Amino acid sequence: MSRVSTVNSRVVYDALTSAGVRLISALPETWLVHLLRLAEDDPEMTLVRLAKEEEGVGISAGAHLAGMKSAMLMQNHGFLASINGIVSCAQLYRIPLLMLISDRGSFGEPDPWQTEGGAVTEDLLRTLRIPYRSLDDATLVRHRIHEAQTLAYSSNKPVALLLSRDLMVESDGAPR
Amino acid sequence: MTRLDCLRAIYPALHGRAVVTIMGAVAAELQSIGHRPNFFYLQHAMGLASSMGLGIALAKPKLPVVVFDGDGSVLMNLGGLTTLARYRPRHLTHVVFDNESLLSVGGFPTATSTGTDLAAMAAAAGVPRTSTVRTVDSFVEAFRDAERSEDLSTIVAKVDAVGPSGYVTDLALIENRFQFQRQLGHM
Questions:
Q1: d(Cα A46, Cα B86) in Å, to the nearest integer?
Q2: Domains along chain A?
Q3: Chain B interface includes A45 (CB < 8 A)
């Protein structure tokens, strides 16, 4: 059995709020459940539940132009579904996007349906020239999120942080 | 009824509003009437103009927002109607110019030409106020009613499939983007 880490979800959430993020757009996914609850319970946060992740690019772009910091929470497949919006809205118009992507489908992935998306995520980020780092160490989460946001704003471009299995999933020894 | 006539009829009412348009004919025609710094033209990313309008409205809840959408764009982001309705920005007016075709790429007919009813879809998605209009007078009236209502409205304006001779204007995309952001900072 494995379960999503409530402690590290809190670490990620607190890092986002300390970075001034006031709007989160998301589609639920197993690893994001605690993060979304934290956003939902926070009266200072606007949580936008999407029908499809690409909408989040437009919502973040509008929020940015209107002066609000935002973040997008999604799974690899949400990133895949967002690519046209990332290229033809965020990159075309130089919009800073802070994307947090559950990096499903890597070593330890028990769900067969997650295995293809995980295999192409980093290659696609590189192809799109989106700077990215992995969040795999709880002690570095706050630092990395702040650094990612700093680069997004200085470059006016999307950046990505990969939420890794090591960070998001607790294990009792079985595959997680 | 033409889209250009509709835009001309409400142009003075766009003052003080954040205006987001889709690409192609809508963007070129609004600019032909006169660009203003509170207008943003999303010259790609079809479907996301209404999502951008929602993002602006969530960041600035008191600012009136007008989105000029099109049938082809709405059909690319039907789920966005459900998100728009779910968060129901009270000062957002969503205008859909429905010419039943993808005009700027050769006029290929869209599904609204074979019966898809976008106002009904918006209503079914949960948009509280929806209408379909076919004359400039009824369009102006629906637009005024929408703004007075202080609630989310989708107005589907059935327009002729005619547009400008060209779509590229002398306003650079990036110039428009930074000017719009600066303007929103004052609104």
A1: 13
A2: 2-171 (3.40.50.970)
A3: no
pTM above 0.95, yes or no: yes
CA-based nearest residue in chain B for residue A90: B45
Which residues in chain B are closer than 8 Å to A56, comparing Cβ atoms?
51
| A65:B47 CB<8 A | no
pLDDT in tens, chain A (176 residues): 579 999 999 999 999 999 999 999 999 899 999 999 999 999 999 999 999 999 999 999 999 999 999 999 999 999 999 999 999 999 999 999 999 999 999 899 999 999 999 999 999 999 999 999 999 999 999 999 999 999 999 999 999 999 999 999 997 655 54
A155 touching B, CB under 8 A?
A: no
Distance (Å, rounded) from C-alpha A114 to C-alpha A105? 5
Structure ipTM:
0.96
Q: What residue ranges do the domains of chain B occupy?
A: 3-185
Q: Does A119 touch chain B (CB under 8 A)?
A: no
Q: Which amino acid is at A73?
A: L
CATH 3.40.50.970 for the B3-185 domain, yes or no: yes
Q: Tokens 């020894």 — which residue?
A: A173
